[in-house]
């Protein structure tokens, strides 16, 4: 089963509330096998909407990433991000032979 990338593009509008989201989201992501590979690092926007923060985590599978998103732990954390950010989030399955 191929791994998957959880990719978020975020504009934080309330730093304190978003920090509470991050406190809960990290452990929830790890619990479901996710591992951050990029978070708040340098970036260049070449096309599309500009967002100030970008996060990429790798999961064992697309299903693991989706299960994480719908988990009680992640949803509790996400309650802090709602109204505190503008976000785009997707999970993208890697090619079978992609190495990461």
Automatic annotation (TrEMBL):
Residues 3-93 form the DUF1330 domain. It holds the Pfam family DUF1330. InterPro entries: Dimeric_a/b-barrel, DUF1330. This is DUF1330 domain-containing protein. Coiled coil: none annotated.
